[in-house]
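Friendly challenge for the regulars: who can give me the structure tokens for this chain first? No prize, just bragging rights.
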Amino acid sequence: MVPELLNGGNHEDSRGLICFNNIFDSYSVKRIYTIENVDTLFIRGWQGHKVEQRWFAVMQGSFKIVLIAVNNWDNPSKKAEKTTFIIKAEQLDVLYVPKGYVTSIQALALGSKLLALSDYKLNEIKDEYKFPLNYFE
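First reply, four minutes later:
Bragging rights claimed.
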């Protein structure tokens, strides 16, 4: 599987604004949490999962999320290809991150809030991998 941006949308009328995503299927989701970086300079990364899948949606502001497919979890290539996504709260886009990827997450606006969803409960499996921010070139 490959990462995919599931495009949402919005509708505004005299009653207000509705943001929606009619593509995202939450059937596999077992856990949700939010991420708020301390500022726009801080980059949360590299962290990922060999087995766990995740989905990200911006609740407020905007985020840059960079993904790398890990080729070897014990000694990943430092020159691995990066894929960058910019997701915003204006419409309820959902970024699907399949198993086998690490992410770096950076808020692009102060006060940004990211909703994260996982297909495993906390501590259900031991599947968290972290690499220093400067590991990948």
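DSSP finds no helices and twelve strands in the chain. The two ends are 24 Å apart (CA to CA). Your move, everyone else.
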